[in-house]
Amino acid sequence: MTGRDAQGEAVAQPVIWMRTLGGTRGPQPSLTLERIAAAAVELADEDGLEAVSTRRLAAKLGVGAASLYRYVTGKLDLYDLMVDRVCAEYELAPTGDWRSDVHLYCVQALGIHRRHPWLGPLMNQVTWGPHLLSALDFLLGALPSASFDLRRRMEILGLVNGMTALVASTIAPAGPESRNPERVAGNAVYLASVAAEPGLPHLSEALRQLAEAPPAPVEPEEVLRTAIDRLLGVPDAS
């Protein structure tokens, strides 16, 4: 919790990356931040972010819940650890071409989001840990200062990560209800009725054209590359 000074002002509390963890007295601690982070990520991957609780995490680690509080003060600490844990999956090395470097970052980020669908909602909540900082530093350094001033590069940093999370969320595996044949058929009938709706001329025309000439499937990585190129002002290849 955030403390208050005598004047009632908030006093900064050290984030997990700045604290001495696990205690210095007594027997050798049985846990490490790495073990805690790995177990929490496994829980979230298997059962969703809501599965990450102190009780379940302690049970998975084979310790008492009180033991965890030598390392974390609550879920925000856990989220910091979890996000940084999955950001260790980046394998980034400069290619010699800045656009290729940006694409490399984006494609790897998309893969991380797809492997860990719970990640997107946490990105704006966490304190940046060492692995995340390293990845962001790579992306920021890839953008040439001669083409983008610092403010523009910081804007791009946020937009690239937001667009990556958005693309990842739109290609998440569909639930069984959405794959139900009767529901799929019902949606097709409904959209056909929308296409014939005179009160929606623009959407109706778009749906009619799409029905006549459905677009070819596009891989999500290509969707992301195209979106990022447009953000960066790179002309279409066509």
Explain what this protein looks like in three dimensions.
It is a single chain. This protein has 238 residues and is mainly alpha-helical. It contains ten helices and two strands; from the N terminus they run E-E-H-H-H-H-H-H-H-H-H-H. It has helices at residues 33-47, 54-61, 65-68, 75-87, 98-115, 130-142, 150-170, 181-195, 201-212, 220-232; strands at residues 3-4, 10-11. It has a two-stranded antiparallel sheet. A hairpin with a 5-residue loop joins strand 1 (3-4) and strand 2. The protein is globular, with a radius of gyration of 23 Å.
Which helices and strands appear, and what pairs or packs with what?
Blueprint: E1 3-4, E2 10-11, H1 33-47, H2 54-61, H3 65-68, H4 75-87, H5 98-115, H6 130-142, H7 150-170, H8 181-195, H9 201-212, H10 220-232
Antiparallel strand pairs: 1-2
Helix pairs in contact: 1-2, 1-4, 4-6, 5-6, 5-7, 5-10, 7-10, 8-9
What characteristics describe this protein?
mainly alpha, 238 residues, globular, 10 helices, single chain, two-stranded antiparallel sheet
**How are the strands of the biggest sheet laid out side by side?**
1-2
Helix residue percentage? 55-70%
What general form does the structure show?
globular
Distance between the termini: 55 Å
Q: Which structural class do you get from the secondary structure elements?
A: mainly alpha
Structural Rg: 23 Å
Indicate the low-confidence ranges by residue numbers.
none
Overall mean confidence score, pLDDT: 86
Strand content: under 5%
Task: Sketch the topology as an H/E string, one letter per element.
Answer: EEHHHHHHHHHH
- How many distinct beta strands? 2
**What does the main sheet amount to?**
2 strands, antiparallel
- Specify the number of helices: 10
